[in-house]
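USER: Please consider what follows.
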Amino acid sequence: MYLFVSITGSTVSFVLRSYSFMASSSSSSCRQPEYQVFLSFRGEETRLNFTSHLLKALKDRGIYVFYDEETLKMGEELSPALLKAIAESQIAIIILSEGYASSSWCLRELSEIMELYTKELLIVVPIFFHINPSDVRSLSGKFKKYFDEHQRKKPARDVKQWKDAFAKVADVKGCHIVENSHRSESEHIEEIVKGVWNKLKSKSPSGHNQNLVGIDDQKAKIISWVRMDQIRTIGICGMGGIGKTTLAEAVYDEVSSDFHYHYFLYNVRENFEKKGRQSLRNEFLSSLLKQDASSLSNLVLRVKRVFVVLDDVDEPNQLEDLCVEHFGRGSKIILTSRDQQVLRNGDGKIYEVTKLSEDDSLKLFSKYAFKQDNPIADFRDLSIRFANYAQGLPLALKVLGSALLSKHKEDWVSEMDKLKKYPEKKVFDTLKISFDGLDELERDIFLDVAFFFKGRIREDVTKILYSSYKCNVRSAITKLEDKCLLDISTPDNILWMHDLLEDMCWNIVRQESDDPRKRSRLRGPVDVPLVLKDNKVTDSVKGISFELRKTLKICDAAFEKMTNLRYIKLYCPDLVGHSVLFKKWVLFHDLKYLSDELCYLHWEYYPFKALGSNFSPKNLVELRLPYGEKIELLWSGDQDLQNLRVLDLNRCSKLREIPNLSTAINLEELICNGCRCLVELPSMKHLTSLKRLGLSCCENIKKVPNFPEKIEEIYMANTSIEDVPSSSISRIKSLQKLVVTRCQRLKSLLGLPPYLEKIEADGCSSLQTVSFTDQYPNIFPEHDLIVVDSPFQLKRLDSIVFENCIKLNRDAINNIVANTLLKIECITKQLVERSTVESAKGLVEKVDSNWMDYKTLMCSSGGSVGYPEGKVYETSYYKVKLVCVLPGCQMLEQFERWSRYSSIAVELDPDKCSSGLVGFALCIVLNRYGPGVHFRFKSQLRTTSGDCHTFIHSCSPINGDGYEGSDHARFIVFDHNMLHEAMPYVGASFKFQSYFTHLDCVGVHVFYIDAAIIRRKVQLSDDVESSEIFLTEEDIGQTKSSGSEEDQRNFSPDNGHEPEPNKIKTIFSLLIEGLQKMLQKVFFPCKGKVEHA
């Protein structure tokens, strides 16, 4: 889902051309809405309060919203982009506030909206915000004054249209929000969003995707099974391309919101082959449950009610590997597979996807060929013939329709005639129509992706292909996506294509020649071994891809004639169990030659000592040689490495040195984990693009290099380093992760950047000294600690782990704790920045049946949990969590209130809670613990009126397995539910419950923050106009402005206006003063003695 803010010129021209084509070929009744809701409002009055809350609620429900940030309002006429947005919306929400009629822009929007409403092309939902609908109808009160002003300044014809539209909207049924009403704005917004959602569902019964055809009945059937308590597992089967995944996605979109834990795991079969059983299981469980999979036991899984879809399962044991049988009561699992036998192993229902009917086939084809539901009259007969040719297979219909989009009739006839010459009814023959419409570069890229890069991130593939073709390939990839040949809509911008399209590519290459040696690309267990066993290949070969499932005979001159070779991909689908594979290579001599054209070299268990005496890596973008246990040296001498982005030498145990990398200015990843013979690294002075460095298990690495300034992740676990000096790391502002786990000789970590997302130093038994730079800076960090997306998912998980660092001195402990509290402060500040007082004040009732199931389970086993019977709430901030683990058995001195029992209570200042923000950080001291340890706790806050708000928190050690002989550990815990704003709380209590361990004592640290100062700083930095709203005379003094009101209102860095220097100086002075006051108040100490609750 996305929020539309503005439209670039190129985008507008493209959309308008498409719209023009539709207008010429269809009636207005076939209008295809691009947006679901258009918001019309008076920005100065409601943008920062009611409108922003309504917008967030609409987005959270998954509704596409057009929301203009004033970027399209210029001149006297509505821009084409704005007109188009209104015309292509399904519903217009008009927020009629007191000053709405004062804006000629708002009235122009209203006139256009009501014209479409009159023609029954648009649904209108008016919101009478703190105004009387009768005043709107009669144009009385302030509305009369505004229209009188328009009458004097604007054309009479325009004003008449505005009056008619204004009066007409008063007769439309809407929502009346009255000041000081017994109903809150949040209740009104909930009702509005629900009504809009119901209207959209009634207008679009097939769901949010307007291109879904013929699946409503099938979807309804599966959803009815999901609703049945006795059915747990549902299988969806059918041939490739029949629409199994599409159907599963439609069901998931409608049902997933009913479950707290839900996840759609795509391409199970392929992910098992690429990632292996253990890795995929951990990734799946972590993504589903939003916590470290290593800490999850079967007992924990059994209390989780989940909804998961496992796409493309091909073996029964994959379900066991993913632990789906352990999920709790009420869980639902949907499986898609081509193999019915896989699905019959369960005891659930099986649904076989049927092909589309003739009518639905024609409709789906028309949506892609004409961008409407029915074919143009002149093309109807041809459309029926093409639809019949596809025989109801959705993928074929989509690709055929896309290939014929905007083509002349003669082209259609030619394509149909072409099909007659190739009567094969296999799907890949049909798909080749789209392939034939590509130019030479697009064809090559499509084949390259199919053979070598399916499943890779688009940006990474683009860099490799750029080096290969020496031109910008981004537009070509976009065109392949537009033609439905590539799918880049999956998370993380991954390049995907359907299996049938992949098969089609293999068939195309096979048709190049009967002799594999003369083909452009080689793949498979027959062709690759044949080519590599001798040197009879030709220079036509551009790439080789092979799964190392068996040994290969490789001639030393096998690559000698492959002068155009650009890609080598020799990989094991599962590295586990292949540790001795390299010993089985049948080699004649060391490798003599590799092509200088190589852009991508991925060769696992590389069996030679070097890459060839004359090899030049000038075109290499990625060099991956993991598990190359024979390689000792990559190449000799200095080389041109400007194109190199990734150098992966993971577990090349005999590698003695890494060559000079001074020319590798674009290198982003350097992975040398497990290079045991590696003693030192080359200079990193010129590696200005390096983001990730892996040196873990390089046992002979003793000296820390000078890290590049842009590095983000450093992994040095199990090395012999003795210290990390401040000079090598303190200047790195972009560093996010530092891992030095089990570095037994490490004695000091000095000058650490204070905002690291992850610090893992557990098991560093000699570590004594730890320090951070700028423990208490005057300003907050420039980079965001929180990645803003959806507020319903965990946005940040910080871990600071010094577990079993038994020699840490007192100063080190205090430095770590101080840095942890500083991070909590910074995260709090950014959470406040992203919220308003009203949204932060609002609590969301949390219905968590898993929690109640867990309670029941523990009580039945004799545990006394004492968890709430009533409502459980959650704050409206973005979801974050921070965990710090330290050695020791005593309560940290920064936590003033503590108890040796499992509960504690503190008193709060209701005045500070009401006017600002109160926050908590918790410290829990655990006795000896092992695998599976975790703890949960509830917090309850009392208001002055006696109301009680309950929140649930949970935490697990970062390393779920614990350490042999681990004694005590102290956990500092913080999450978004420990922040509360503008609520008159007088007291807070916390009750803890730990499992598989003993809880020694608990402590709480209370702090107060003036959130208004933070929000004022954000408003001032974003928009000078907001200073007129938030700055008072007391704040600013008696500052006067010589600029006009319009100059002040229109100020922005892009329009050429400049604010008055005195005012800017005053603003920044106020900002600095406010931040200083806030830092003085933050972490306000609560004085008191030990309290037993």
Observations:
- The first strand starts at residue 3 and ends at 4.
- The first helix runs from residue 9 to 25.
- The chain has 36 helices and 40 strands.
- The two ends are 47 Å apart (CA to CA).
